[in-house]
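queue> pop job 88
queue> type: inverse folding (structure -> sequence)
queue> payload:
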């Protein structure tokens, strides 16, 4: 094959990839909030406790770190959100209903959203088994709090999520604003409420997670994280954007981090037009105000 042929083939492949990307993503160009709202801030908790660590076969010491999230961290976070009238979204594996059901009931009673985070914090490769996991998790969460979840944070197959009545996913970082995702063939459109690892507590406060070695440890000064997250908030606030703060109860449930979050929320509240709804509320607003242009199927 000549160099020209090779180049043409590569360009063709790139064009196909770009067109598939366009089919899969639909961004909301005219995104804005109702009169009087400048920004939505979603506090989201990935309430994994020890399930992910168990799945990775981590040691008892690491499992105990996860356990702290279920015994203490989640309660501290609920108390923090309630004290500021912040409505948070708790993404949780269905099996947490067997481990820490009271915390889910308490969060729901305070007006926080309980959403799916996979049955056991992983997505099976076999599609039938995957569907079974979605159904198990959905049913368990519905039974625990009396309301069927409509949101998920997972890599579950879009068609299966649609089939089970899910309205949105909160995964990935293709844009800083809510947008729509579809399968490669343009089917199964689902709203995505993005987050980013720069606003994820685990990236700053994680110790010995995922079997990481010493060089990978991160115990950041909470004041430094406060400054970075405040800067991210201010930047989004100025442009009428969106912020999704991803917290893990076993990470952010530690006292000095709760104190930092308390200061952060208090400072955000000094500005006008800051909205602290659940992801479900943001999702329902987007679906109504900016429905997908090429249909919702
Ligand atoms: Zn997780």
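queue> result:
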């Amino acid at each position: 094959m000549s160099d020209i042929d090779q180049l043409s083939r590569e360009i063709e492949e790139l064009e196909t990839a770009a067109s598939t990307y366009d089919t899969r993503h639909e961004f909301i160009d005219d995104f804005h909030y109702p009169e009087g709202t400048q920004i939505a801030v979603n506090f989201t908790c990935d309430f994994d406790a020890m399930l992910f660590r168990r799945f990775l076969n981590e040691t008892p010491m690491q499992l105990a770190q996860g356990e702290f999230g279920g015994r203490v961290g989640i309660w501290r976070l609920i108390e923090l959100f309630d004290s500021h009238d912040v409505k948070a979204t708790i993404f949780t594996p269905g099996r947490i209903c067997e481990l820490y059901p009271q915390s889910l009931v308490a969060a729901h009673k305070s007006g926080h959203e309980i959403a799916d985070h996979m049955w056991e914090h992983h997505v099976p490769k076999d599609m039938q088994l995957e569907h079974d996991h979605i159904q198990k998790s959905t049913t368990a969460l519905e039974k625990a709090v009396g309301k069927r979840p409509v949101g998920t944070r997972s890599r579950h197959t879009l068609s299966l999520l649609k089939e089970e009545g899910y309205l949105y996913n909160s995964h990935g970082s293709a844009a800083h604003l809510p947008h729509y995702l579809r399968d490669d063939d343009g089917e199964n459109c689902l709203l995505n409420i993005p987050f980013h690892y720069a606003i994820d507590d685990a990236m700053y406060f994680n110790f010995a997670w995922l079997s990481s070695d010493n060089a990978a440890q991160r115990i950041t000064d909470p004041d430094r994280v406060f400054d970075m997250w405040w800067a991210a908030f201010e930047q989004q606030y100025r442009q009428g954007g969106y912020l999704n703060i991803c917290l893990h109860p076993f990470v952010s449930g530690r006292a000095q981090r709760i104190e930092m979050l308390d200061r952060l929320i208090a400072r955000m509240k000094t500005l006008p037009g800051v909205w602290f709804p659940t992801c479900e509320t943001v999702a329902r607003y987007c679906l109504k105000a900016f429905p997908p242009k090429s249909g919702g199927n």
